[in-house]
Predict the structure.
Amino acid sequence: MRNLNLDQLATLVEVVEGGSFSAAARRLNLSQPAVSQQIRELETRFGVQLVERLGKRAFATHAGRELVEHAHRLAKDAELASAAMRRHREGWLGRVRIGTGATYLAYFFTPILRKLREAHPNIELEITVGTTQAIAESMLRNEIDIGAVTLPVDERIFDVTYIRSDPMQAVLPTSYEDVPETVTAEFMARHPLILEYAKATTGRMVREWLTDAGAPPRPAMELDMIEAIKSIVAAGLGVSILPFESVIRRPMPEGMTARPLSPPIFRRLGLIQRRDKEADRALGLVRQALLELADG
């Protein structure tokens, strides 16, 4: 069977939805015999009747109705394909899929994304937010092109570019007395712990820090929203350890104070890509822009 003719399918749709061959001819700027010929060719191709005439009206048979449904989907796909090619013709550079954590997106990405959009408006950006593990798994499925994540990751699989390290901070209610200038795991363990879920890389780092210091964590609450953790700490319900940027780069809630940790926990940010991923121009430009995270 020869390939389907989209023009013939469009003619069938016009005949069925317009209710007559003459109406379809007017809408398509064709002669009525030309419309009839296209319908006959479709019927011959499939070996079934697609249109039946009842009086002056044309109606789709059951097969015709089913083919019209397919025709609508094919027409939509054809338009999407045409739009994609127009974007290339008009200077569209491509789509880049970025994966990052909620904290990095909230506190670092805005100026970089604004600058990137101003310099390269023909790059489409798709941003996925998740944990380092989730982003790495999506990248292995080729659902994400580049990630800005908390390290470490498996460097046998991913090409890793180190960007920066930031010390995490203890956050405590201002109502607490005798808070030291630097906070130890022993001090934290004496108070209710409000922690990020362990599935997050930073949540796992905090638990390891406490355990290594001989104070295995027994969190009073676990959440996956940093701003919610800050609110709970400010309300005097416990203490937490949060990324540096979420404490320093936003106004601190009334009722909450921050202290450095002893020993410190450093949260390392890096760009990751699959080692076998070929970089096109759009991905290269986005990567170059994300390197500015080092200056954030």
